[in-house]
């Protein structure tokens, strides 16, 4: 005969795992979410993180550069030269990536708040603004090419990451 009691195997465990109580966010979590919804905070944070990435990339690319007169330099001179190159590359890349992250994040946040939508159009517009701003010194043609190029790159990255479905 079949027993009316649930077996000790899987039924009791599956019933308790199926129903979980709803946990409301703590006041600290709510304050953290409100802080991250601020465009200025989000932009500065992106700029700092972009600068950190730029430092790492500068160290990597600076280490790959060889001195032109390496045959005539002593080992100490080569090490000093490499260290200086890595420092210069790191600062250059850090500035570029910090500005890029700040502009992109600020533009995306402002467009998202203005449109009240979270979709791929925000990334396209932010990419266009960022690319145009970074290429502005080159004149109007460079600004347009930068806008189109960075906007297309932003859309491609968003599609690849599948953030917006």
UniProtKB/TrEMBL annotation:
<keyword id="KW-1133">Transmembrane helix</keyword>
<dbReference type="Pfam" id="PF02466">
    <property type="entry name" value="Tim17"/>
</dbReference>
<keyword id="KW-0496">Mitochondrion</keyword>
<keyword id="KW-0472">Membrane</keyword>
<feature type="transmembrane region" description="Helical">
    <location>
        <begin position="44"/>
        <end position="64"/>
    </location>
</feature>
<comment type="similarity">
    <text>Belongs to the Tim17/Tim22/Tim23 family.</text>
</comment>
<keyword id="KW-0812">Transmembrane</keyword>
<keyword id="KW-0999">Mitochondrion inner membrane</keyword>
<feature type="compositionally biased region" description="Low complexity">
    <location>
        <begin position="7"/>
        <end position="18"/>
    </location>
</feature>
<protein>
    <recommendedName>
        <fullName>Mitochondrial import inner membrane translocase subunit TIM22</fullName>
    </recommendedName>
</protein>
<dbReference type="InterPro" id="IPR039175">
    <property type="entry name" value="TIM22"/>
</dbReference>
<dbReference type="GO" id="GO:0030943">
    <property type="term" value="F:mitochondrion targeting sequence binding"/>
</dbReference>
<dbReference type="GO" id="GO:0045039">
    <property type="term" value="P:protein insertion into mitochondrial inner membrane"/>
</dbReference>
<dbReference type="GO" id="GO:0042721">
    <property type="term" value="C:TIM22 mitochondrial import inner membrane insertion complex"/>
</dbReference>
<feature type="region of interest" description="Disordered">
    <location>
        <begin position="1"/>
        <end position="22"/>
    </location>
</feature>
<dbReference type="GO" id="GO:0008320">
    <property type="term" value="F:protein transmembrane transporter activity"/>
</dbReference>
